[in-house]
Every structure is written in C-alpha cells, then in structure tokens.
From TrEMBL:
Keywords: NADP, Oxidoreductase
GO molecular function: oxidoreductase activity
Family: Belongs to the short-chain dehydrogenases/reductases (SDR) family.
Pfam families xrefs: SDR
Gene3D superfamilies: NAD(P)-binding Rossmann-like Domain
Name this protein carries in UniProt: NAD(P)-binding protein
Species of the source: Fistulina hepatica ATCC 64428
Length: 250
C-alpha cells in the first residue's frame, strides 16, 4: 500500500468534518508533517488537541512533532500568500474550506451585494489564490472540494452552484497549467459533520449504499488522490450512489 511517508500535507478547513478526517488519515498514512488551518483560533486549537488525542488513541503512537496548525482568513489574499511563504515547500494541499452560501431567488438577487459575491470569494477565488501561492514539490498535488449541487442544482442556490461549477472547470485548466503538479477536485453529498446532522437525518434511504457518508469515508478519496501519482484533472464524486438513486425515482 502506498503511504505518505516523508510528505508534508496542508489541510485548509482541517478543524472539523472532512478536513479533520483527511488530516487524521494523513497521519495514519505516515505523513511526516500535517498542518491544519482554519479561520478560528479556538477551532484550530481545539482541533489540534483532538487530532493528537485521536491519533494516539487509535494507533498507540504519539503525533508530537508531526502535526501543527495555522489560523488563516481565506478571503484575505495577502494572508494566503504570507501563509505559503512561511511554510515553504509542501507535498500536498487539500482545501475543504468555504462557508459562503448565497441562497435566494436569482431574479431578486442584488448581484452587486457582498452576499452574492460570497460563494466566489469564499470558495473560488480563495482556492485559486492558494493554488497560485502554494509551493508544491514535484510529484505533489492539490485537491479542491465542491458539493453535489454543482451536478444536481438546488432551487435558489444559483450563486453557490455557479461558484462550485467555476472551480470544477478551473481544476482541469490548472491540471494543464501546473503540470506535473496534479490538480483534482472532489465533491460529496452532505457527509455528517457539525450542524449538518439534524438537516441530513433520515436521508440514508436516498443513498444506494444504505447510509449517509461519514467524514472518514469521504477522506479516503482525498488520501487516494494524494497517493496516486497517475491521476490529475479529475472530478471525483463521493456520494454513495445518491445520483443513481435519484434517477431511479423516475
């Protein structure tokens, strides 16, 4: 089995949910250094403690010296540049951040408002700035994240879906532009994490696998993208057969 031995992994959005699971999975895959980054100092500090505890509990080994954290506002492009300048070369960059949601009737949206721009600022432009600023070693990779609504749009989410679709398209362009650095994107269908639990309760029946995905299950796809040196420019769908189940309803 391929491992991440000797590799440095940065997970932006690594304080909870999928990002946290990717960080833990990277440690378990023998990454030499794992850095989690998020916008909240409290969340990052809490996540760092939980990450060390879980790794020690589940493996019997210590994560001391192998895991670190940073606080970063991903809407601040100067801060993004400064972060990567400080970290220097890394092997893998995983981005699971992006809280900007703009829900509303498109015909009534004020397209000049901060709310309308938030999905692009929080997810699209910040991801591109990170990809531009990152110093990825040869053989390394970048993995973006979007939601399944890009391929299965939700009413009144046009602004959010548009930002995700833009990042999806940019992934293929960056795979060509940044080669041989590998660039991929992954989308999931509402894995359970944080405040989503109440919203997604009862949705198991809509997935062919019979259950809603956990962060740990989804994280396995990110680990694959980091370890496999022969994949780039791809959109990986991790959604438990949700799209196929939806088709069966017709």
């Amino acid at each position: 089995m391929s491992t991440l031995s000797g590799k440095t992994v940065l997970v932006i959005g690594g304080s909870s949910g999928i990002g946290f699971a990717v960080a833990l999975g990277s440690l378990k895959s023998n990454a030499e250094r794992v850095i989690i980054a998020s916008s909240s100092q409290d969340h990052v500090a809490n996540a760092l403690g939980r990450l060390k505890t879980r790794y020690t509990t589940e493996t019997g080994s210590s994560a001391e010296g192998r895991v670190d954290s940073r606080v970063i506002d991903m809407t601040n492009h100067a801060a993004i540049k400064a972060l990567f300048a400080e970290l220097g070369e890394i092997d893998h960059l995983v981005l699971t951040h992006g809280a900007g949601l703009a829900k509303g009737d498109f015909k009534e949206f004020d397209l000049s408002s901060a709310k309308a721009r938030s999905p692009m600022d929080d997810r699209y432009w910040s991801s591109l700035q990170a990809a531009q600023s990152a110093q990825i070693k040869p053989g390394g990779s970048i993995a973006f994240t979007i939601g399944s609504a890009v391929h299965n749009p939700i009413p009144k989410w046009a602004m959010t879906v548009g930002a995700g679709g833009a990042l999806d398209a940019a992934t293929r362009a960056l795979a060509v532009e940044l080669a041989p650095i590998r660039v991929n994107i992954q989308w999931d269908h509402l894995p359970i994490s944080g405040g989503r639990e109440k919203f997604v309760r009862g949705l198991d029946k809509y997935h062919l696998v019979g259950h809603l995905g956990t962060p740990e299950e989804v994280a396995e796809a990110y680990l694959f993208l980091m370890k496999c040196g022969f994949i780039t420019g791809e959109t990986i769908k991790v959604e438990g057969g949700y799209m196929l189940e939806a088709a069966l309803q017709f």
